[in-house]
Amino acid sequence: MTAFAAVVFDFDGLLMDTESTLVAAWRSELSHHGLTLALDASFWPGHGGDVTDHRLDRLGALVGPGLDRAASHARFLAHRERLHRSLGLRPGIAAWLSEARAAGLACAVASSLPRAWVQAHLSRAGVLASFDAIATGDEVLTHKPDPAVYHLVLARLGLPPASAVAVEDTPHGIAAAHAAGMPTVAIPNPFVAAAQLTSANLVLASATDLPLAEVLLRLSPES
Predict the structure, then answer these.
(1) Ordered DSSP codes for 124-165
(2) Which domain does 23 fall in, by range?
(3) Which residues pair with 107 in a beta bridge?
(4) 185 lies in a domain?
(5) N or C: which end of the chain has fewer CB within 10 A?
(6) Model pLDDT, residue 51
(7) 1 is a domain residue
(8) What is the rounded distance in angstroms from the CA atom of residue 96 to the CA atom of residue 104?
(9) In angstroms, what CA-CA distances link 67 with 13, 37, 59?
């Protein structure tokens, strides 16, 4: 018997590898201008939410005043959408969702991005009905590492923080879950080193590393 009643997942980079499609689409757009994408600290902002304008500003500084921002953004979106057509859940996630359902655990999503984005991808992957609650960035005033979205999803689940495990892929996601009082599991996305996630209670390379039951056992206060 687990001490937990729910598992709350981040979305981007955790449930689905939308970080790789993000990088591929920006890399394609910079190549269109004869440029190479630098995956430095200014590309990864260290907080949740939409930073498209920031990245277009960076591109404009490189290209100059001749940049057509609207056309550039449209190319980026079209390229990324093509990549998303075949995008599924990250390895092991489907098994965790099935295991949670079989054990009577609630599953939820806490994302800094808008609800329409999250629901569209989960619907396309055929797993939207697997989630009992979703809380998103367009429903709160502040984004991760602020815990607002976690407070919201816990309220929707009707659970105290200690009863739900958060699964995240970035340092700011882990910080948000901890600020909400939740135990955390880190599964880094392809652009985050595991060494950046050591503040999590448990760090895995993939959801295939352990069954969900073993993860929850290791996080249990009695362990």
Answers:
(1) HTT-GGG-SEEE-GGGSSS-TTSSHHHHHHHHHHT--GGGEE
(2) 19-84
(3) 7
(4) yes
(5) N
(6) 80
(7) no
(8) 12
(9) 29, 16, 8
Q: Is residue 36 part of a domain?
A: yes
For 172-201, the pLDDT digits (tens) are: 999 999 999 999 999 999 999 899 999 999
In a domain, 139, yes or no: yes
CA nearest to 186, candidates 163, 170, 208, 175: 170
Q: 65 and 100: one domain?
A: no
- In the numeric block, which tokens belong to residue 86? 């075949």
The whole-number pLDDT of residue 223 equals: 58
pLDDT the model gives residue 183: 97
Give pLDDT < 50 ranges for the chain: none
At 34, the amino acid letter reads G
**Same domain? 11 vs 25:** no
The answer on 186 and 129 residing in a single domain is yes
Mean pLDDT, the chain, rounded, equals 94
Same domain, yes or no: 184 and 154:
yes
Long-range CB contacts for residues 93-98, cutoff 8 Å, separation at least 24: 93/9, 93/15, 93/207, 94/127, 95/207, 95/208, 95/211, 95/212, 96/7, 96/207, 96/211, 96/212, 97/127, 97/130
